[in-house]
Design goal:
- The complex is a heterodimer of chains A (218) and B (123).
- With 218 residues, chain A is an alpha/beta fold.
- Chain A has a single domain (24-216), classed as 3-Layer(aba) Sandwich (Rossmann fold).
- Chain A has helices spanning 12-17, 23-34, 36-41, 56-65, 78-90, 128-137, 152-158, 161-164, 181-192; strands spanning 46-50, 70-75, 95-99, 114-119, 165-176, 194-204, 207-216.
- The two termini of chain B are 26 Å apart.
- In chain B, strands 1, 2, 3, 4 and 5 form a 5-stranded antiparallel beta sheet that branches.
- Classes of the chains: A alpha/beta (218), B alpha+beta (123).
- Bound molecules: S-adenosylmethionine and zinc ion.
- Zinc ion is lined by residues 12, 14, 17, 21, 99, 101-102, 104 of chain B.
Chain lengths: 218, 123
Amino acid sequence: MIPTPNLSHLTSADYDSVYEPAEDTYLLLDALEQDAEHLRELHATVCLEVGSGSGCVSSFLGSILGSTALYLCTDINPHACICSFRTGLQNKTFLDVVNTTFAGPFHHRLKNAIDVILFNPPYVPTDREEALNAQSKRYVEGSWAGGKDGMDITDRFLDVVKELLSPRGLFYLVALKQNDIPNIQRRMQDKFGLSSQTVLHRRAGSEHLFILRFQRTS
Amino acid sequence: MVRLITHNLLACHVKGCTSNNFPLEFKDVQVELRDAEFNSDFLRGFIPKIEWKALVDAARQVGNTSLPLELPEMLDDDFLKSLHHVLLEIHVEEGSMTCPNCHHVYPISNGIPNMLLAEHEIG
Ligand SMILES: C[S@@+](CC[C@H](N)C(=O)[O-])C[C@H]1O[C@@H](n2cnc3c(N)ncnc32)[C@H](O)[C@@H]1O
Ligand SMILES: [Zn+2]
């Protein structure tokens, strides 16, 4: 058993502005735990979490892989960046956090170089407008507002993730049934040659959540 | 906290700024030193990813001159200790990073680099 990260330093005031770990977060932790052996065998040097929020998931990955990897995190929300950093410290994984969209400033230097990429995106279907506004406000709404089919934001990262993934690298994505999972999988295969599996899925209230794992088809 | 290991991986990402956009230049920095656990396997694994000259220059900009100008062929313990310190223990808490090409300024405050761009600057 890998312990769930200690989040006792975060208060309800933090969760006014930053996404509080929920069923989606915990399903991703469970998927990483289930894949722990496979992840260790990668001998990862560089990991990246896009949209790290509270920092819970990267801290957990740090407990699986230990101090032989670098843990980069990004978030558009500056409060989330601070929370991620503090959660790393609290759980003895140093998280190198950058306030930016997706992996923007890393593309130039980390082409085909990231071994583990994680993204629990804003996946809730909303108006397009609402998703765009949430992105520019850089506050807690940006945690869920996903636009058309909940895919407006995720799609922007799916278009570039392959450029970052190392030859044996793994990319984990949280998705909702309404996001049209077979369509995501087919598109990633056809456009980018990334094959994928469902690692776990679970119903939580009205949401049917999936964890997809992508890798290059060799 | 912008550690020099992260700095070595960050480039300007303003739309159209695709050459000479690395390394970003530190300005007006406040630095803190914090111990990190030494791990030679990590360092050896990471060395191939380092842009050496950028690292040496960045270290100088924050007042550290312990690294040789060329990456040595023999990775002895003394060298790995210096490298460990430069990559992982020097934290830039305040200041900014400027793109050498388009001169965009990315501020660092409370240890977090702000690399958000306005909508029209995103590629
Ligand atoms: C559903 S929350 C997940 C938070 C955390 N990873 C977790 O699993 O609990 C989505 C996170 O992505 C961030 N986010 C949304 N759009 C983003 C973008 N374009 N680039 C980077 N982060 C983004 C949000 O601010 C939020 O912290
Ligand atoms: Zn630039």
